UniProtKB/TrEMBL annotation:
This is ABC transporter ATP-binding protein. Belongs to the ABC transporter superfamily. GO terms for molecular function: ATP binding. It comes from Microbacterium nanhaiense. SMART domains: AAA. PROSITE patterns: ABC_TRANSPORTER_1 (PS00211), ABC_TRANSPORTER_2 (PS50893). The keyword Plastid does not apply. It comes from the Bacteria. Residues 3-248 form the ABC transporter domain. It is a peripheral membrane protein. SUPFAM superfamilies: P-loop containing nucleoside triphosphate hydrolases. Gene3D superfamilies: P-loop containing nucleotide triphosphate hydrolases. Keywords: ATP-binding, Cell membrane, Membrane, Nucleotide-binding, Transport. It is found in: Cell membrane.
Length: 260
């Protein structure tokens, strides 16, 4: 299945915060959307998911497997969201329900889209908890989010996305709040998941070094516009736009501080 975004424009309060963004994600591809804070990268992902904040208006085209999904009624989008396109959010603490056990949240998408319930849902939650590297899966699915570490909560978020077996995973800066060791584990997990399951990936970040670990191609955003695009290896070795060059310097500086 292919995601195609064409001339996407997002306006908030009369101002264009995303201005003519276009890209494609063919089946099995791993694309990065990279830019500084405020570049419009997360809003672009939310527009694809039909989850823009109140007051935001999107125009242009977003097609999924040849079907226009931009502007679809929420009921129709809900049938695609989760089952075909899943999203891993930046901060799992806010994405997870604090008063529901982890297992129920992991199996939620499978319950909604595949009718999985009861013992089958519990078994699925445990299998997925194990698949994303959570310790003691049978025990951890009975816990609440506040009883887990940040890295464990992010793995729960990924497991919840996998429950519905989506063809495309959108990961919105999923390692930003994690320390470097935990971050490495999450990146390796995402890379292995898309490889093993043949899923496509859209990975959103401000860090080129991080992007290089999970994506092969990228688009670079500045103030809502695409200013450079190409293979991640080329962006790392010979970036042409000042924004990309700045992102590369920042990534190198971050790596230097980590190894200092």
């Amino acid at each position: 299945m292919t995601l195609v975004v064409r001339e996407l424009v997002i306006e908030i309060g009369g101002s264009r915060v995303v201005d003519g963004v276009s890209f494609e994600v063919p089946s099995g591809a791993r694309l990065g959307i990279i830019g500084e804070s405020g570049s419009g990268k997360s809003l672009t992902a939310l527009a694809v998911m039909g989850l823009l904040p109140h007051g935001a208006r999107a125009t242009g085209s977003v097609t999924w497997n040849g079907r226009e999904i931009l502007g679809l009624p929420d009921r129709e989008l809900a049938a695609i969201r989760g089952s075909e396109i899943g999203m891993v959010f930046q901060e799992p603490q806010t994405a997870l329900n604090p008063i529901r056990r982890v297992g129920g949240q992991i199996a939620e998408a499978a319950r909604i889209h595949r009718g999985v319930r009861g013992p089958e849902a519990r078994a699925l939650a445990e299998r997925l908890a194990a698949a994303v590297g959570l310790p003691d899966p049978a025990g951890i699915v009975r816990r609440y989010p506040h009883q887990l570490s940040g890295g464990q909560r992010q793995r729960v978020g990924i497991a919840a996305v996998l429950a519905a077996e989506p063809s495309l995973i959108i990961a919105d800066e999923p390692t930003t709040a994690l320390d470097v060791t935990v971050q490495k584990g999450i990146l390796e997990l995402l890379a292995s998941i898309v490889a093993d399951r043949g899923a496509s990936l859209v990975f959103i970040t401000h860090d080129l070094a991080v992007l290089a670990q999970v994506a092969t191609h990228a688009v670079v955003l500045e103030r809502g516009r695409v200013v450079e695009e190409g293979a991640v290896a080329d962006l790392l070795s010979a970036p042409t736009h000042p924004v990309t060059q700045g992102l590369l310097r920042d990534s190198k500086a971050t790596l230097w501080r980590r190894h200092d």
